[in-house]
């Protein structure tokens, strides 16, 4: 089990397998809310949800390590769509489940009603830092099918995608059957710049803050209501876009200004020479 997330206790919560979770709470189309909260508040949330939820368990593990590589075009068109609050936006990433070596290429799109749709393609972890020919075809099809871009532009964007930023974090995933919702609790989120936009490799960490994300079919879940009762409100944070804004202060970032200057005010990036990067 990842050593950091041992600080978050899930003992006593009923468990759910990955197959059950994917069957009962696939939620590839959902309403997402994200919160940045201190570690003790995350534990209080887990304890509150324990009688009502089920925690994902694979083997003996209930906490898992993830790595995601995000891709963008040379002019950062994906980032700019989000930063400029366009009604339709998208992200392309690979997600690697480090405890099992599973990997997927994922395309996340957001339509005019703020519903997030995630589609994914089984992928080799060897290719986690690049888009293969099959991957480009998948990205093209998803962007055009989602009406984000017309087919010819979708193909052009897919052809230009290159790796930009890498994230690591530890995650606990819970299912709330009564709400038909998922809740994820992410600890020790770190970002590393991999697009070569500076003299060294820039990296940053969220420190002891926890990212809680609720993924609901429509109405707010028990998790949302508990967090609201404790004074927490949804925060503007995107693992990709907020990380890019943090590592590259010159990018337009008004959308995440409060998050960057309040919750993440202490998350100053450090610069390492590329030969010393992990």
UniProtKB/TrEMBL annotation:
<dbReference type="InterPro" id="IPR018966">
    <property type="entry name" value="VTC_domain"/>
</dbReference>
<protein>
    <submittedName>
        <fullName>Polyphosphate polymerase domain-containing protein</fullName>
    </submittedName>
</protein>
<dbReference type="Pfam" id="PF09359">
    <property type="entry name" value="VTC"/>
</dbReference>
<feature type="domain" description="VTC">
    <location>
        <begin position="30"/>
        <end position="248"/>
    </location>
</feature>
<dbReference type="GO" id="GO:0006799">
    <property type="term" value="P:polyphosphate biosynthetic process"/>
</dbReference>
<dbReference type="InterPro" id="IPR033469">
    <property type="entry name" value="CYTH-like_dom_sf"/>
</dbReference>
<dbReference type="InterPro" id="IPR042267">
    <property type="entry name" value="VTC_sf"/>
</dbReference>
């Amino acid at each position: 089990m990842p050593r950091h997330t041992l600080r978050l206790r899930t003992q006593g919560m009923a468990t759910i397998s990955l197959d059950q979770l994917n069957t009962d709470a696939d939620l590839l189309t959902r309403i997402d809310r994200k919160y940045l909260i201190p570690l003790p508040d995350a534990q209080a949330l887990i304890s509150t949800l324990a009688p009502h939820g089920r925690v994902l368990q694979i083997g003996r593990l209930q906490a898992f390590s993830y790595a995601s590589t995000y891709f963008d075009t040379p002019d950062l068109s994906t980032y700019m769509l989000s930063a400029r609050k366009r009604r339709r936006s998208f992200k392309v990433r690979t997600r690697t489940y480090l405890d099992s070596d599973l990997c997927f290429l994922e395309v996340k799109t957001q339509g005019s009603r703020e519903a997030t749709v995630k589609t994914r393609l089984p992928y080799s972890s060897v290719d986690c830092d690049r888009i293969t020919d099959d991957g480009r075809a998948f990205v093209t099809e998803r962007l055009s099918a989602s009406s984000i871009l017309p087919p010819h532009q979708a193909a052009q964007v897919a052809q230009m995608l290159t790796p930009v930023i890498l994230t690591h974090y530890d995650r606990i995933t819970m299912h709330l059957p009564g709400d038909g919702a998922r809740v994820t609790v992410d600890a020790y989120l770190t970002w590393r710049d991999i697009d070569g936009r500076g003299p060294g490799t820039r990296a940053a960490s969220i420190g002891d803050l926890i990212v809680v994300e609720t993924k609901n079919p429509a109405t707010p879940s028990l998790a949302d209501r508990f967090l609201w009762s404790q004074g927490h409100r949804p925060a503007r944070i995107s693992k990709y876009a907020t990380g890019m804004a943090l590592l590259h202060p010159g990018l337009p970032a008004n959308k995440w200004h409060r998050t960057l200057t309040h919750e993440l005010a202490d998350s100053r990036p450090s610069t390492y020479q590329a030969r010393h990067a992990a």
